[in-house]
Design a protein that fits this description.
With 94 residues, the protein is mainly α. It contains 5 helices and no strands. The chain has one domain. It is 66% helix and 0% strand.
């Protein structure tokens, strides 16, 4: 899974922050699962590549987007914490 879009970077950063402040597993698998879940929960326009990266970066700095991302990530992390899909070998590699 490669993370390239600005919204994806923002979500993954928020996932890291959220997991750092909770007791839940933060292995690569759980991070990616939480990020993917959160992204699915966010409005599609945040992930749009039609308007150019500069415009999107500006929009992603707005308070509304920050709040949306924060809420989506918190919900996604709760789902992943409840049902982690990591394998034992994933944990060994982190
Ligand atoms: Zn995990």
């Amino acid at each position: 899974m490669t993370l390239k879009k600005p919204i994806e970077k923002l979500v993954l950063r928020e996932v890291d922050r959220h997991m750092a402040t909770s007791a839940q597993c933060s292995c690569q698998r759980c991070r990616e699962d939480a990020a993917a879940l959160a992204l699915r929960d966010l409005p599609n326009r945040y992930a749009s590549t039609q308007r150019g990266e500069v415009m999107i970066n500006v929009e992603l700095q707005s308070l509304q987007v920050q709040l949306d991302v924060h809420r989506a990530v918190a919900a996604a992390c709760a789902v992943v914490a409840e049902r982690p899909r990591h394998e034992p070998e994933d944990l060994a590699s982190t």
